[in-house]
Write a structure and sequence with these properties.
alpha/beta; Rossmann fold; Luciferase, domain 3; nine-stranded mixed beta sheet; seven-stranded mixed beta sheet; 26% strand
């Protein structure tokens, strides 16, 4: 069945290539046979805890073998994975657990404290805890602890807290579960909300496998080596972009994935050299960091053949420098949490044209429309990109108003409004122009300006806040907040507000700058005129760049 293709393909790869290395993690190799056995044992262990079809399992982990095991085991028993960043604070975590109704949290011991802090206020029944090095060979793990190189945290839980390794002692015979590809959810991902709260994006099995199979069977056909290729997974697996490539290039085809826990440049370059990596996915910031690394020339990365970039616009100067350094181009992938992977550069078409984000995948239909009239614009004219698929869920979790704003009925179906402005080429390629102004891009992450503003306005002396992006060639945009304080506020400065945000937001969402003003521009109906602030910031930058008279 179409519904089971992704996991069935993994199992087929396990049967066909049992001795192939599925994952390399911190230098240790995990074969397909071994990985499948751990997945089956963990799935049985979850079942013995009372976790079953439809139950939500929140994965609060960094890239690791434990992440892969949890994801695949949950899919096997029909549970729904809730994928979140491991650097979220307890403030963000509590909201997402309650919103998704998660019964189980799987976390590292280093972020267990955040879970413990909010446990009594959530529906969580079980907390499964693991150390990053839990599944690494004992001699290496012992040496890391001896040299104090192993990250670890204190775990003082009650009966609800279970060691990850305990579940791996279960028998490898999980129950057989029938999954409805359309009506059963596979995952819930969270993305920025316009009301200040993240939106849960539910994905069914059919929607998820449709684009994964598109990538394996169409985009990479004739280029990827089944059972004999190597991909390096740098981006976090809680991103739809990274998760899709990991399945499409690695587990579905019997290939090896070098799984990086953190994007450390020297470690990435060393891994490419050591394991002869051929495939790579990154965001513009990662490619720039590699090019600006003082030791990049000491590594042999000549094995690279296919490099993809997503998450933000790739500057032409980065592309030119990368091609000069490696001899290979960087292709584009574009997608969204709501629509999955949408477009890819075609590998047989040579270097992609400037600002091209590729052509749509077979399972995705796109239009370029006038944002006000919703009418399709002529080829070559700029409009908003909207996307649909017969396979995807077209709503947000528990947010009917935001669903109504983001998903629109057109003549041939319900389309998702990406908020990105593009134009369509004669050959079917889509060319990126600009993005919706209230979504910022920092180090490849999408940041909702409204969410950051909402947190700032929770501070007892803040009466208004406006958040904008300040262009920065290294990170895309730095986050700047314009803040209005109460008249009687005393002693509150930028450092306190930044610290206040740090306690409530993941680090990539925290403002880099805070400016204080007496008032913010608003419309006649009281709506914040963020555009005026952005235009003002742009004029400041142009003035700073202008040559002296």
């Amino acid at each position: 069945m179409e519904s089971e293709k992704t996991f069935t393909r993994f199992e087929q790869a396990c049967e066909r290539f049992p001795n192939n290395t599925a994952i390399i993690f911190l230098g240790d190799r995990f074969s397909y046979r071994r990985l499948k056995e751990m997945v089956d044992r963990f799935a049985t262990g979850l079942t013995e805890l009372g976790v079953g079809k439809g139950d939500r399992i929140l994965i609060y982990l960094s890239n690791s073998v434990q992440y892969v095991i949890t994801f695949l085991a949950a899919q096997k028993i029909g549970a729904v994975v809730v994928l979140v960043s491991p650097i979220y604070t307890s403030h963000e975590l509590e909201y997402m657990i309650k919103d998704s109704c998660a019964r189980v949290v799987v976390c590292h011991d280093t972020n267990y404290g955040y879970v413990k802090e909010i446990l009594a206020r959530t529906p969580v029944d079980h907390v499964i805890v693991t150390n990053l090095l839990d599944l690494i060979a004992w001699p290496k793990r012992a040496l890391a602890f001896l040299l104090d190189k192993a990250p670890h945290g204190k775990v003082r839980g009650g009966p609800e807290t279970v060691p990850f390794r305990k579940l791996l002692k279960s028998a490898p015979n999980p129950p057989s579960v029938e999954i409805d590809p359309i009506n059963d959810l596979s995952y819930i991902l969270y993305t920025g909300g316009t009301t200040g709260f993240p939106k849960g994006v539910p994905g069914n099995h059919w929607g998820h496998t449709s684009y994964v199979n598109d990538i394996s069977d169409h985009v990479f056909a004739g280029h990827v080596l089944h059972g004999n290729d190597v991909y390096i997974a740098v981006n976090p697996l809680f991103h739809i972009m990274a998760l899709g490539l990991f399945l499409a290039l690695g587990l579905n085809l019997g290939n090896t994935t070098v799984l990086m826990p953190v994007p450390q440049v020297d470690a990435i370059l060393m891994a490419i050299q050591r394991y002869r990596v051929r495939w790579m996915l990154g965001v513009p910031t990662l490619y720039r960091m590699i090019l600006e690394n003082d030791r990049q020339d000491t590594y042999d990365i000549s094995s690279l053949r296919y490099c993809y970039c997503g998450g933000d616009v790739l500057p032409r100067e980065v592309l030119s420098r990368w091609k000069e350094r490696t001899g290979v181009t960087i292709f584009q992938v574009y997608g969204s949490t709501e629509a999955g992977h949408v477009t890819y550069s075609r590998l047989d078409a040579g270097d992609p044209p400037s600002m091209s984000i590729g052509v749509p995948l077979p399972s995705r239909r796109v239009k370029v429309i006038d944002a006000d009239t919703l009418e399709t614009v002529p080829i070559g004219e700029v409009g908003e990109l909207v996307v649909t698929s017969d396979h995807t869920v077209k709503e947000y979790l528990n947010k009917p108003e935001e669903t109504a704003a983001a998903f629109i009925q057109l003549e041939d179906g319900v389309y998702y409004r990406t908020g990105d402005y593009v134009h369509l080429g004669e050959d079917g390629q889509i060319f990126y122009v600009e993005r919706r102004a209230d979504i910022l891009k920092h180090k490849g992450y999408r940041v909702s300006a409204s969410e950051v503003e909402s947190v700032l306005q929770d501070h007892p002396v803040v009466v208004g806040a406006c958040v904008v992006g300040v262009p920065d060639k290294k990170v895309g945009e730095r986050i700047k907040a314009i803040v209005v304080l109460k008249d009687d506020a005393k002693g509150v400065g930028a450092a306190e507000l930044i610290n206040f945000c740090s306690e409530r937001l993941a680090s990539y969402k925290v403002p880099s700058y805070i400016e204080f003003r007496d008032m913010l521009p608003k419309s006649k109906v009281g709506k914040l005129l963020r555009r005026e602030i952005r235009d003002e910031e742009r004029r400041k930058m142009e003035k700073d760049k202008a040559p002296a008279a």
